[in-house]
Amino acid sequence: QLVESGGGLVQPGGSLRLSCVVSGSIIFSVVNLAWFRQAPGKQRELVASITRAGTTNYVDFVKGRFTISRDNAKSTLYLQMNSLKPEDTAVYFCNLGGLVRDGTYYETSNWGQGTQVTVSS
Asked: What is the mean pLDDT of the segment spanning 103-112?
């Protein structure tokens, strides 16, 4: 089970930290993880991924603003989001267990319920 939290309403330029707690029979430390987002009327898109070795990858539109990290002891994935823009408004989802090839994360069917992020003044 994946449970996201940390979303909310923030002004442009503000920050939020999302969390995704993983429970169940998964051995958290050996899986790759990722954050995706889905804005209204748009397809879900990859935001950032982190491998079991800690290698991170970001899509261009969040580079320098977002940081993905993981705490294996807590079975928790994080996304620190700084300098938020209105176009970052979306529901953010974590995904577990995907394959990472050539820096691209390939999603699995293991999704959380999502957490809403709204960036607006």
From this structure: 91
